[in-house]
Structures are given as structure tokens and as C-alpha cells.
Here is the input.
Amino acid sequence: MTGTEGHNSIGRASREAFERSRRVFVDGTTRVTIERDPIPRYAARGAGAYLFDLDGRRFLDLNGNFTTLIHGHGFAPVISAVTSQLRSGTCFANPTLAEIDLAELICGRVPGVETIRFVNTGSEAVMFAIKAARAFTGRASIAKIEGAYHGAYDWVEVSQSSTPDDWGPESDPASVPYYRGMPASVLDQVVPLRFNDAARVEQRIAEHAHRLAAIVVDPMPSRAGLIAPTPEFVAAIQRAAARHGIVLIADEVLSFRQGFEGASARHGLKPDLFTFGKIIGGGLPIGAIAGHREVMKVFDASGGRPLLPQGGTFSANPLSMVAGLASMTALDQAAFDHLETLGDRLRTQLGSVIARHRAPFSVSGVASLFRIHPKATLPRDFREATPSAAEAHVMKELTRSFAEAGIVLPVGAAACLSTPMTTGDIDLVASAFNDFLATRTDLIESLAA
Ligand code: PMP
Here is the structure.
């Protein structure tokens, strides 16, 4: 850090990089999810829990590439596994032992996962899980949670970012297009459900059951608020899927990090199919579709053309496989206990800070995930979690003030902890939040207005 400049002012090196990138990228970046204020901060390197930007500033990284880096940056077992694999080959048109190792670990760990297939991203995993459900049921439509993010597949993009202006009635959320020109046929094939609306969800699924292949549900959808499912909601979804022969897909691409056995096990959900990504690749690109053999058999090509062909040039590439195995092997029960303890400590401390300042904030999350809401009452679903303009402004200012304190806090998504973090890091986050609430009373008052 230079002088009294503060962490948040983007340094010269990032500004220069952005100037170059604007010539080759239409908006200066190559993924919409990159945060910018007003331009992005360029990463130079990472080390453990910390990220270093091009200007040499150090930040506690609560983003972890959107919750991927559960062991932080430069995790030694991943480095050595990948380095050694690089020497023997990065990809083959043949299967390798590495894919069996990672598959055995996941199948051995997650209840309900009998068999698995690897792809390269979470989006691809969700796409194939939905196709598998279609091939299994012979139906085309899906139900999904309003506001939930499941990657870049048209059907799951429906109602991903509905607004109060277009989301429709509470009992029948509208299918809202995500981009101009989204085919009407896609909108017709998606039934948005409200998260935690146990009273309505069964009826809504029953109304569309004849055409539903799948119900796609992230047990704790991050962008929809990172809110825990109520037991009644879990039971209602489960009953509806079973009654109508609909494939229940748990998208655990992000939420798998909630426990040794994943998020569904934690919240009592028993899906037919799972999708995984992020942490199972140890920091390299990955995705997976997994679940009951009965449904997964749609991929079975041993007798000729399967019901659902699935390939992919880089699927199960050995670099992602060995990185994932190294990362997941280190994620033993003790590692999860450590993350759980850190997460509980953080949520408790943030709660105390809120109480001390009597500020209209709440905190959601479990295990290594948390999200701060500029809302006095903890939201129960996406609509309640959607910030007003004033609330969104406050969250932007909060993220700025965290950056000044040397902390990267994601805006509008789940923040996460990593195994190299310590109680000192947690205390730093709580103290940055305390400073914000103590000094920005003008802003906080704007919330009450
Ligand atoms: N599903 C969920 C729940 C996710 O959080 C994400 C990524 N944030 C995806 C799917 C898509 O994964 P990817 O970015 O690897 O395509």
C-alpha cells in the first residue's frame, strides 16, 4: 500500500491493465461476474488466504474465485499434484486412473451418489443433469427456484434476475427472460418456484407435473440470498418430486462446501441427481453430474448409443482430476470442523456488531459461507433478499470500506472462508464491519428512511 491512498483506490498498475484490456474486451473484462468499482482490481498472485493485486496490495480473500478456493491460493498438495501431472500429460483421448481416484472419493463420501461423470464447469454439469432428467422422464420442462443461479444454460437462466417490476404474483412467479431474444419456448418450459414457500410449492409442481422432467434446487442458493431451506420446504419438494416421478436435482456446485457429505445431506434433501463443481477441482476447471445409478444410466454407452450422449474434449482431464483429488483429500472432517468453527465465530461476531450498533442488518449462511444483508429481518427468499436501491448502495459502500481495510467482500453473493484462515482473520472482518457501522451512520440511517 502506498502512503494514505487506501486499499480501495485502484492502483496505477490495475488502471494500466484495464486500459489495455478495453481494446480487446468489449467491457474490459471477459466475465460478467468480475466486480468493478469503477474498474476491476487485477490480481497478481495469491498466497493462502490472501490475494495480492498488481500494485502489491494485500487483501484477505473472501471471494476465493466465487467460493472455489476452499484451501486458499497456492495450496501445496495441489501444486505438487498438478506439477507432477504436467510432466506426464495434460489431456488424453483415453481415460486415466486419476478420474477413478476422484470419482471413488466423491462416491464414497456423498450419500446418494453411486456414480458420477466429469465435465469442465458447473454450467455444463447443470446442463447435463437437466438433459439426463429429460432423457430419463421423456419430458422437457423444468422447475427452478426464482433468483437462483445455476450457470449459463438457457433454461436455468430464466428468472435468475427477476425484479419487483417483472417477477409477477407471489403464488405464481413469472418466467422472466434473462437476455433479449431468449426464446419464448425456453420461457414456456420453466416453472419458477419461490424458495421456502412450502405451502404453495407442491400445488404449483402438481399443476405442471405432466411436463416436468426436473426440479432444480440449490439447497442454499447463494445469489438468491444464501438462505437455509426450511424443513417443510425440503419435505414438500421431496414429496412432489416423488409423487410425480420428477427427477430432483440438487445443484451443489457452490454449496457442496457446506460439509463433509455436502449440502443436501446437511439439509435433509435426498436428490436423484447432484451437480458439483468449484471445490472438487482444487482450483482447476471442473464440473460433475452424479447420483443414483438408475437415472445416471441414461449416459451408459456400453451397449451402443446411450439415451443421452455426453462427451467433451477436456472432460475428466487429468490436471483437474489430480488437483481435485489433492484438494478433496485434504478436506477431511477436521478441515470441515475448522471451517465450521471459523464460520460460527464470524457469524456470531457480525451479529454482536449489528446488535451493538442496533443497525438494520442480518447475516445468513452456514459453515464456511456467509452473506451480510442490509435488512433488519433475515430474508426467507429471493424476493425478501432483493435489495432496494438504498440497500444496494449501502452494500457497495460496505464493500468499499472492506477493501480499504484490506478485505475482498463479494457484492451480492456468498462470501467464503478458506482453511488457511485463522481466528485473527475472522476478527479482522468483524472489526472492519464494526468500523463501518460506527463511522457511516449517515448511510445506515438512510436505510431506515
Ligand atoms: N451452479 C451454481 C449453484 C453456481 O454457484 C455456479 C457458479 N457460481 C454454477 C452452477 C456454474 O458454475 P460455473 O461457473 O463453473 O459454470
Observations:
- The domain at 76-330 is CATH 3.40.640.10 (Aspartate Aminotransferase; domain 2).
- Residues 1-5 have pLDDT under 50 and may be disordered.
- Residues 333-357 form the longest helix (25 residues).
- The chain has two domains: 42-70+332-448, 76-330.
